[in-house]
Every structure is written in structure tokens, then in C-alpha cells.
Amino acid sequence: MKHVLSSGQYTRESLEELFDLTDKIRNDTKAYAHKLDDKIIAIMFYEPSTRTRLSFETAALKLGAKIITTENAAEFSSAAKGETIQDTVKVIAGYADAMVIRHRSDTSAVEAASVEKIPIINAGAGKGEHPTQALLDLYTIREKKGKIDGMKVAILGDLKYGRTIHSLIKLLSLYDNIEIYGLSKDAFMLPEEYIEMLKEKNIDYKICYSFDELPKDLDIIYHTRIQAERFEGDFGKEEFIINKEVLDKFSKDTILLHPLPRVIEIATDVDDDPRACYFEQAHNGLYVRMALLLQVLNKDK
Ligand code: CP
């Protein structure tokens, strides 16, 4: 059974397959309008979302599928009465053909997939991974830069709890001559396990404490918000705000990405800069998620 659980399950070849399919869907979306006519997709979100939930719902609808959905499963599903993820999946498998799940637990998607009744797509698991976000991030990099090998990438913000960061660096580590610069406060630095993973893949990773330590010719700046919902207490002042003045320190070819939502880490004065690609990035998610739904339901050929 095909699931999307972790970025770690992808190879360069499987990514090219996914991105080629995404390109085809994007170029002729109407041609795919009836591919999932007989399918029902369950969308179970136990945590808040705008982009991931609504883009998956839109993706399913554009493919002709029907959806059953709950936007606040933590409160309105029987999880509130103590039902396990596995029991929930066993029941939903009797109604739907695939399930998209976002949950506060790092192991939620793996637990759901262990039932092996329907394909499971991880739409964000705690502080662990958010593979479909990373897939659309990489698709956007490929589109904007024309390649992925050789990219110089700065990752900023919450490298500790930021699941999009964890999934993205796993995908980047598949490519050649990648350099990654991690800029954050001490409290939000990349966990050791990910630094070890990069080392094993011979990816250069440099810890940075200020914008001045980042190379001016970066290809990508990938910023993230502090995941305040994942820890107790105050995280203090945001020190790494990108505004027009900061962005202008970098090359005219440095693109600025963010999984969104942003809080204050990217000032709105850069929104109209051609290097600011985060809204396009979010839009790409629709097509990548259409391709993923087709793949897990074996309707991609
Ligand atoms: N990027 C992302 O996961 O956004 P949402 O939380 O709005 O789904």
C-alpha cells in the first residue's frame, strides 16, 4: 500500500516522477477532472490549518473525488473520547479510499498507516515531519532555480520544532553539492539527529547566529515562524526579521520561501519583491497534492 509518511521515503527518481506528474496536472488540470470520480477522501485535521487542509480538499475535488472532513478532529471526532488513531483509521477505511491526517503527535501518520487498510498521507505530524509541504517546497525550488543540485540554502526560524524544515532538509540531502546554513537562536537550533543525518549524507551544514554570517549569493532563504504552540513559555523577541533592507543584502537571484503562516518574521514590504515566492509556493501545493492523491490511489498512469 502506498503512503506518504516521511520525506525519507523519496529518492531523486521518485521525486522526478512526482514533479513530472505535477507539471502535467498544472498544465492541463481539466484533463484530470474525473480521475478520482469514484473515490472518497477523508481529511482528518487534529490541529489548525489553512493551506494544507484546504489545498488537499481542493485537490480531491478537482480530481472528481468526494471528501469527508473534519477541521477540528481533536475536539469533534471521537479522539476527544479517547479513541486511538488506529481504531479511527479502521473505521474510516470502511467509508473512504484514502486519509489525510494532521495531528499533534510525531508518530501519528505512522500509527495510522500501521493499520494498512487505506493509503495515509501525513499532512503534519507534531514537531516531526510535514512531507507534503517539503515536496511542494522542493517543487518550487526546482521551478524557480531550474535545478536542485548545487543549491546554497539558508534555513531560518524554528529549526527545532519546525516540521517543514525537518522534511525539507531530508529531501535536499538527496542532491549533490548542497550547502545548508542554519540561522536561529540557541533555543531553536536544528536537533542533533538532523545534523548527524546531514553529515552522513556529506551535506555541508553551518550553524549561524546573524544575517552577516550568511553568504550573499544564497540561492534560497527558507524562513519559518517560531512554533509557539509546541512549547511552554515565551520565546522572546524575533531577531531574524526579513524586510526589504535585509533582503537587499542578498543577491537579486536569492529567492525567499516560507511555508506560511508567517507571523512577523517576513515583513510585508517584501511581498511585492520578485524574490518573494511564498504565495506562489503555497499555490504550487495544490498541484503537488493532486499528484500525490493520484499516486497513492494508483491513478497516476
Ligand atoms: N504550511 C502549512 O502547513 O500551512 P497550514 O498550517 O495553514 O496548513
Rg over CA atoms, rounded to whole Å, is 19 Å
* CATH architecture term of the largest domain: 3-Layer(aba) Sandwich
The average pLDDT value, as a whole number, equals 97
Order of helices and strands: HEHEHHEHEHEHEHEEHEH
DSSP E strands, number: 9
Count helical runs: 10
- Bin the helical content: 25-40%
Query: Based on helices, strands and strand pairing, what is the structural class?
Result: alpha/beta
The ligands found in this model are:
phosphoric acid mono(formamide)ester
User: Could you give the distance between the termini?
Assistant: 16 Å
Domain count, please report it. 2
The CATH H-level superfamily of the largest domain is Aspartate/ornithine carbamoyltransferase
Note the overall shape. Answer: globular
Strand numbers in spatial order across the main sheet: 7-6-5-8-9
Percentage of residues in DSSP E strands: 5-15%
